[in-house]
């Protein structure tokens, strides 16, 4: 009888151990993510709630980001997610892509990402591509999101007034997951936007009858950053690329909005998006305004310095550019995060 009792106790003990080992195995599998997935909803900022339009600014557009301006019949907004291991030398474990074809600021995407190993980092990138396609357009991402570069060297940066150059990113560390856990991520811009607005009046005075037609913008500092690592959030300069620091812009007239103040009938001399680096937090530039398309009649050249470029912020340089009276103001404005800084 004692032997039978011992056998029963041993059988019970083995059963308990088997259950325990199975539980440990399942827990270990969950912690490493072998049979788990990460559900994450991703979107770009929605500026509708944070922008206030003044009555005179019904035609204002240059203060907005690309998602509010880009034509959805010509472009889609492409989202990319990559999973990177949390190691001294991170390894790419997974990549997926989704596209949004309209309502860019109000439409989110849902990624269901199989977890390879934990902890890890989710790296997101969103940019504009041709409508109906998911291939690279302005930014080359094929290698991975640690090596994003311009499609046409730095000359893409010189294509001023193309808001389809706008882009967004985010990095999300994941330590552990559960099947019912969901994440929501709002991306931000990896660069700052610079725009130049001329308030000069062409009726009366020394420039009567002359209107600005072409603005030539000549940056005086080091070449622009042209490579971006979305995992580290760092932009660098690849000097093997060809750089163009001088750009021409066809001047546009608009009722501009600057820090919620409307400026009626000003001239937009140029704007673009620039990666931010510790080495180049600001730029010096010469702005020459011409009264003809052939650039044979310069109205004036304005020499500017210390124009800041701040990540995810809009820098506006506004004032008299081609007449001898008046001053230039520099305003750094972040409407995307509901914060404003005036310099």
Task: Present the secondary structure layout.
Layout (H helix, E strand, L loop, with lengths): L1 H31 L4 E7 L22 H4 L5 E11 L6 E9 L8 E6 L5 E11 L8 E2 L7 E7 L12 E8 L7 E5 L4 E8 L15 E6 L7 E3 L4 E3 L9 E5 L1 E7 L2 E15 L6 E9 L7 E11 L5 E6 L8 E7 L4 E4 L1
Parallel strand pairs: 1-9, 10-19
Antiparallel strand pairs: 1-4, 2-3, 2-5, 5-8, 6-7, 7-12, 10-16, 11-14, 11-17, 12-13, 15-16, 17-18, 19-20, 20-21
Note the main attributes of this structure.
2 helices, 2 domains, 343 residues, four-stranded antiparallel β-sheet, Immunoglobulin-like, mainly beta, disordered C terminus, disordered N terminus, six-stranded mixed β-sheet
How would you describe this structure to a colleague?
The chain is mostly beta strands and 343 residues long. The protein has 2 domains: 37-186, Immunoglobulin-like (Sandwich), CATH 2.60.40; 191-342, Immunoglobulin-like, CATH 2.60.40. It is built from 2 helices and 21 strands. The chain has helices at residues 2-32, 66-69; strands spanning 37-43, 75-85, 92-100, 109-114, 120-130, 139-140, 148-154, 167-174, 182-186, 191-198, 214-219, 227-229, 234-236, 246-250, 252-258, 261-275, 282-290, 298-308, 314-319, 328-334, 339-342. Strands 15-16-10-19-20-21 form a 6-stranded mixed beta sheet, with no helix packed on it. A hairpin with a 7-residue loop joins strand 6 and strand 7 (148-154). Residues 1-10, 12-34, 48-55 and 336-343 have low confidence and may be disordered.
Question: Helix/strand/pairing class, anyone?
Answer: mainly beta
Oligomer: single chain
* Total tally of structural domains: 2
CATH names the topology of the largest domain as Immunoglobulin-like
**Which sequence of SSEs, written as H and E, runs from N to C?**
HEHEEEEEEEEEEEEEEEEEEEE
Distance between the termini: 92 Å
The percentage of residues in β strands lies in 35-45%
* CATH architectural group of the largest domain: Sandwich
Low-confidence stretches: 1-10, 12-34, 48-55, 336-343
The CATH class assignment of the largest domain is Mainly Beta
